Recover the amino acids of this structure.
């Protein structure tokens, strides 16, 4: 497995696995010494509660009711025929897919352009683009609600200038999800821009110099050098974007609590349904079963992304 | 990245495109800002205006009057800074080890850590809270901070960034007899300052905005972080938008400051031009 | 790395302060109270200050959170055995928590005081197994607000009392643009939005004919109460409003923002609008009347309760303070400064009426006017939320208007769904 710019020198393995050289042993000891305390801390504070949460999904536990009993997979089976769950699942899939595509594409373009073209005031631009990430969701959502307002919103006003008809963006079933996606993409572009930017900045100048001397245009060197070297970062970004796309909660929640939002389950995503089940109806057993379904979906996607990444890498 | 010396048409186009994009990003924030400077009757006026007909600082005065701003800043800053420090440190070490070393159960441990990112926090926050009750750290700083010492996302982030770091440098140092610990401290970590800077910003921003855990673990007002302190502006029915947006401005200011300070870290991240 | 080092030192200093941060008071007792109504804190602070004058050893610690979050936090804290001394709680949850043993009953010495100062409808909401588990505090109920300037312009001289009159007025008050779209609604109905609000607002139209979303069938047992004539009338009112008479539309602004901004003439809401109007639209003249009705007139009643958890540390003292803070003068302050109405009987609000006569209109109820408290069912949240979700879809279906068989079938389907939820919670 060799990669342009770096790779592993063959390690001084002598003989079968078990007979490790002192250097190997020393490395393994160091690695374990560093990892185990960190992992132990994490295991106690996160993994153990998650295991407990999983156990609760096998019960009919409700907050505020003292007694609860083990019910096995009953919650899981009931969810499969539950309309709210199925609609939320469908919405989550569309939501995650679209948010991922738009956010990553735009963020990558921004990061590439900033690194390759002569841009003045990169610092200012990055601060402005990152701004939506740090402003609290609720005030941002209020403003976006006003932008989308059917009577007085800026969006409809701008559309009227070009003769398009006004729409009730958040209420209309066909536009509601896209309206919330636009809000979410606006919020998160800056985050992925930073991830890509950091990755691009780590690419040694020497390679790009060499390509330029050889007469490669900016975009050829991007395709041939930058993107391949960015592979681990792209994997990071797609996995994070997938996880974010499915676990996002506040952005969708606050856009739907206004009195102008879409009817029925149009905007219900999995995290919202989990929240409602667990913290509004107080049925934690059901909610956690739904969360485990979400978990399984995400594990599936993530493993697939890791596998695809590894295969592509072998082609080099 | 040396910019090309001659200004080309495509460069001008890119500049324009980026600045237009930045404006779109900025616009809602500007509207928030102007709302915070409006009087109540102008906020609820129909049709809504963007610029305040009459500007006022009254909303900001109310924010400072209703909320204990210094205390909220202190509590939130402590939580965010300590989280950032601990998480960046543990993530960097763990990410480095995952990327550059082989050891038994490595993949299993890594997969377990990553999978925890896929369970929504609200699902396991009750068992976590019960643990804190048993440890008797409810409504204490320690109870707030404990779950935010290590983070799977951070570890994943640093691991991916370390993967691109050439092994050559590590091997060279080993041949010279340096210990693994020294290699990590002198070579690996310093070269990933960019990534650590980026991670710092993410952790700082997300802990600054964290509501759900502080809500469950904090009881008394003197321990509130900002997101809890905003409750006094977020009433169920009448939201005073002027005060609420003014409070949002006050809350976001330090994060912007942190970003600006750390962005130079990212910008000045050392790009490798050769073996040190 | 010096920047990092500086930050590191700062962090250590900051952590060091955590040793000092958790101070404990020297008072004989500190009463902790959580509330989801931040706006009521000034009143409780005043009561606490007065109480401390009479009991110098008692300190108070008030914490406020947003309403929904406070409820969740309280439930989790009570389940974990780490609750505050006092909290507010909705009446729907009071009985459920009492049944689970999470609440301390009101001291029996208070029972005559309770009966003297509160109507039975308030006390029933928080009685379980013959014992009271909370003291009623503020109350929420829907009123009909109407814009007087619009009324005058349309030549309407008195507020409506029946559903038909409500619709008649709305028709005279609605304004349209050149394309026939509504620009100013005659009535602002709650047509969309998350949560259970839509169903709660719809229920007011059910009350107009004596029905409700859930009807009791026995102790702790309920059934759906809207798959009947009253349900048909209510849903048809909405559909007629939207599609036949076009007095409201999905595309106009709704609710408080619309009334304050002057783009609607009539709508239903609680008393807090009085304060909002004073602050945001002080020049607009408006009137308040009770919710309209046909065979019956009534409105919903949300009884705010102050409870003391069973695991609280200072229970006796907590009850004493709640009783103290229920004094008439604090009720007057609550109405005058905050805008919430206490549920206590016989409080003299004339000083407040002199400043703000709208409050008098709000409490002026005709004889026989019904106050319908929220049903104390465990399934309340789920039934109402699901019904609300279904209603928002129904409102978009113009074909159901005046179509009795279709509406009745739809109502039956929703009733079946609601009953299923009740069944699952063993409440059917």
């Amino acid at each position: 497995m060799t990669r342009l710019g770096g790779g592993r020198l063959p390690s001084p393995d002598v003989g079968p696995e078990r007979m490790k050289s002192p250097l190997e042993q020393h490395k393994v000891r160091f690695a374990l010494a560093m990892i185990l305390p960190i992992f132990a801390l994490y295991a106690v504070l996160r993994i153990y509660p998650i295991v407990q949460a999983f156990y609760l999904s096998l019960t009919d536990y409700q907050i505020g009711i003292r007694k609860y009993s083990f019910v096995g997979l009953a919650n899981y089976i009931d969810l499969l025929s539950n309309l709210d769950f199925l609609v939320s699942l469908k919405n989550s899939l569309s939501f995650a897919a679209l948010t991922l595509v738009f956010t990553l594409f735009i963020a990558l373009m921004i990061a590439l352009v900033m690194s390759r073209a002569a841009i003045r005031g990169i610092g200012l631009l990055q601060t402005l683009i990152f701004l939506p990430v740090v402003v609290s969701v609720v005030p941002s959502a209020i403003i976006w609600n006003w932008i989308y307002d059917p009577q007085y919103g800026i969006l409809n006003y701008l559309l009227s200038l070009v003769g398009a008809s006004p729409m009730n963006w958040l209420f209309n079933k066909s536009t509601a999800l896209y309206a919330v996606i636009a809000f979410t993409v606006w919020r998160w572009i800056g985050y992925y821009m930073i991830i890509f930017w950091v990755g691009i900045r780590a690419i040694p100048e020497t390679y790009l110099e060499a390509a330029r001397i050889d007469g490669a245009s900016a975009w050829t060197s991007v395709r041939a050098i930058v993107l391949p070297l960015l592979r681990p970062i792209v994997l990071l970004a797609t996995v994070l974007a997938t996880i974010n796309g499915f676990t996002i909660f506040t952005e969708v929640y606050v856009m739907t609590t206004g009195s102008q939002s879409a009817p029925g389950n149009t905007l219900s995503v999995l995290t919202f349904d989990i929240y409602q089940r667990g913290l509004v109806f107080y049925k934690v057993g059901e909610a956690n079963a739904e969360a485990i379904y979400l978990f399984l979906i995400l594990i599936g996607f993530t493993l697939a992304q890791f596998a695809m990444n590894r295969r592509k890498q072998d082609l080099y | 990245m040396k910019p090309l010396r001659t200004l080309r048409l495509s460069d001008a186009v890119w500049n324009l495109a980026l600045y237009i994009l930045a404006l779109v990003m900025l616009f809602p924030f500007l509207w928030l800002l102007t709302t915070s400077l409006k009087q109540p009757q102008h906020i609820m006026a129909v049709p809504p205006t963007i610029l305040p007909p009459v500007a006022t600082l009254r909303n900001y005065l109310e924010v400072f009057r209703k909320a204990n701003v210094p205390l909220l800043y202190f509590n939130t800053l402590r939580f965010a800074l300590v989280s950032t420090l601990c998480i960046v440190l543990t993530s960097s070490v763990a990410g480095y080890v995952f990327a550059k070393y082989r050891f038994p159960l490595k993949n299993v441990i890594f997969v377990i850590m990553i999978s925890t990112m896929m369970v929504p926090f609200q699902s396991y926050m009750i068992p976590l809270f019960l643990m804190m009750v048993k440890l008797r750290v409810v409504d204490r700083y320690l109870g707030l901070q404990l779950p935010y010492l290590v983070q799977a996302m951070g570890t994943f982030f640093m691991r991916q960034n370390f993967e691109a770091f050439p092994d050559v440098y590590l091997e060279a140092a080993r041949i010279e007899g340096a210990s693994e610990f020294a290699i990590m401290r002198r070579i690996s970590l310093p070269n990933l300052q960019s990534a650590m800077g980026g991670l710092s910003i993410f952790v700082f921003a997300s802990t600054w905005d964290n509501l759900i855990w502080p809500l469950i673990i904090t009881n008394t007002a003197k321990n509130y972080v900002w997101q809890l302190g905003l409750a006094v502006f977020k009433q169920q029915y009448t939201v005073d938008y002027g005060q609420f947006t003014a409070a949002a401005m006050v809350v976001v200011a330090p994060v912007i400051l942190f970003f600006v300070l750390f962005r130079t870290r990212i910008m000045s991240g050392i790009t490798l031009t050769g073996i040190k | 790395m010096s920047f990092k080092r500086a930050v590191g030192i700062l962090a250590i200093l900051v952590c060091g302060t955590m040793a000092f941060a958790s101070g404990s008071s020297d008072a004989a007792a500190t009463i902790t109270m959580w509330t989801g109504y931040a706006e009521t804190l000034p009143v409780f602070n005043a009561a606490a200050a007065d109480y401390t004058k009479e009991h110098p050893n008692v300190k108070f610690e008030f914490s406020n959170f947003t309403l929904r979050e406070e409820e969740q936090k309280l439930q989790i804290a009570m389940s974990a055995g780490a609750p505050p001394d006092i909290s507010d709680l909705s009446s729907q949850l009071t009985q459920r928590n009492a049944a689970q043993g999470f609440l301390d009953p009101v001291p029996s010495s208070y029972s005559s005081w309770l009966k003297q100062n509160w109507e039975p409808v308030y006390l029933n909401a928080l009685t379980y197994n013959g014992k009271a588990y909370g003291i009623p505090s503020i109350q929420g109920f829907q009123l009909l607000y109407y814009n007087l300037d619009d009324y005058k312009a349309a030549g309407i001289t008195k507020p409506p009392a029946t559903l038909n009159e409500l619709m008649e007025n709305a028709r005279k008050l609605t304004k349209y643009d050149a394309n026939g779209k509504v620009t100013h609604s005659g009535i602002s109905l709650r047509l969309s939005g998350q949560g259970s609000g839509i169903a709660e607002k719809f229920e007011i139209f059910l009350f107009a004919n004596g029905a409700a979303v859930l009807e009791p069938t026995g102790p702790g047992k309920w059934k759906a109460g809207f798959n009947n004539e009253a349900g048909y009338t209510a849903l048809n009112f909405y559909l007629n409003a939207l599609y036949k008479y076009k007095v409201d539309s999905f595309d106009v602004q709704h609710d408080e923002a619309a009334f304050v901004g002057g783009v609607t003439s009539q709508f239903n809401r609680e008393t807090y609008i009085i304060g909002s109007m004073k602050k945001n639209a002080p020049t607009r003249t408006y009137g308040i009347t009770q919710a309209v009705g046909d065979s019956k007139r009534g409105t919903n009643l949300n009884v705010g309760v102050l409870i003391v958890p069973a695991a609280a540390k200072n229970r006796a003292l907590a009850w004493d303070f709640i009783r103290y803070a229920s004094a008439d003068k604090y009720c007057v302050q609550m109405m005058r400064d905050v805008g919430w109405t206490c549920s206590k009987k016989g409080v003299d609000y004339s000083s407040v009426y002199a400043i703000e006569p709208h409050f008098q209109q709000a409490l002026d109820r005709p004889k026989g006017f019904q106050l319908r408290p929220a049903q104390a069912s465990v399934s309340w949240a789920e039934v109402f939320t699901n019904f609300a979700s279904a209603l928002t879809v129904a409102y978009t279906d113009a074909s159901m208007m005046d179509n009795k068989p279709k509406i009745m079938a739809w109502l039956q389907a929703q009733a079946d769904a609601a009953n299923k939820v009740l069944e699952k919670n063993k409440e059917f």
